[in-house]
Write a structure and sequence with these properties.
Elements: H1 8-40, H2 59-65, H3 92-125, H4 131-136, H5 145-153, E1 165-166, E2 169-170, H6 172-181, H7 191-196, E3 199-201, E4 211-214, E5 217-223, E6 226-229, E7 238-241, E8 248-251
Antiparallel strand pairs: 1-2, 3-8, 4-5, 4-8, 5-6, 6-7
Length: 254
């Protein structure tokens, strides 16, 4: 007869031991897996609130990491000069010059009005023959330089009047024109035109009665370096030494 008591307990013990070993293995594997997962998390996972955007990477930090802030500057930029705008004020000298210009303009207008008044008086104060009258019937049909100078000398003391061409008042070319008209020689009322009407001669050959031509002025050569002319406003026809060497001599009728 077989011994039943000895076999039954031996079969039940090994089964219980296997269950416990399997359960322990599962617990160990679970803990190990959790430990590995925890170690694999990035560092910011342990910081509270690390998921907030204020702790995350910004566009500027990403640009810095990417080295995107490179600026190329042309070498010529170092040589470019920079100037600063400034303000200028009118100086005392400029103000004085402006005031002088205004005063000169006023004086010029005053002279113009005086000349106009003189011309009005001139036009009504002479009733004798005019240039055109003399050209139509010259009192001295025989032309010679000495006679020209003699006639011209008779008008010393006649006042200067701008535009004048009668014994009521002469300007420089009006005086020459009026005298030569008495010899039947017509001339323009212009010093330049009168200079072009004759022939230039040397000063050594000049005689009284020849014309002295300057820039904007003329008269009769009076001999010995002198000129007979109507000089300027406020003066009268007179003989005086030539004050400049910037002139030339012209003779008419040759």
């Amino acid at each position: 007869m077989a011994d039943v008591r000895s076999t039954a307990p031996q079969n039940s013990r090994p089964k219980k031991s296997r269950r416990r070993g399997s359960l322990g293995n599962i617990v160990v594997m679970t803990l190990a897996g959790g430990l590995v997962a925890t170690m694999a998390l990035p560092a910011y996972a342990f910081a509270p609130g690390s998921t907030d955007t204020q702790y995350g990477a910004t566009e500027s930090t990403e640009l810095i990491k990417a080295d995107a802030q490179n600026v190329k500057v042309d070498a010529q930029a170092a040589t470019v000069s920079v100037s600063r705008d400034g303000f200028t004020a009118t100086t005392k000298e400029e103000l004085a010059a402006a005031a002088a210009a205004v005063a000169e303009a006023a004086a010029a207008e005053s002279r113009r009005q005086a000349a106009a008044a003189a011309m009005t008086s001139y036009a009504t104060s002479y009733s004798g023959p005019s240039v055109s009258d003399y050209l139509a019937s010259p009192p001295y049909p025989n032309y010679d330089l000495s006679s020209v100078f003699s006639v011209a000398s008779q008008y010393q003391g006649v006042p200067y009047v701008y535009g004048g061409a009668t014994p009521a008042g002469f300007d420089c070319s009006g005086f020459v024109m009026y005298v030569y008209a008495q010899f039947g020689i017509g001339l323009p009322h212009s010093s330049t035109g009168q200079g072009a009407a004759g022939t230039r001669i040397s000063l050594a050959d000049a005689q009284p009665g020849d014309l002295v031509i300057m820039d904007g002025h003329d008269g009769f050569y009076a001999g010995n370096g002198n000129i007979l002319h109507a000089p300027y406003e406020g003066a009268s026809v007179r003989i005086q030494p030539l004050w400049t060497s910037d002139y030339y001599i012209v003779r008419l009728g040759i």
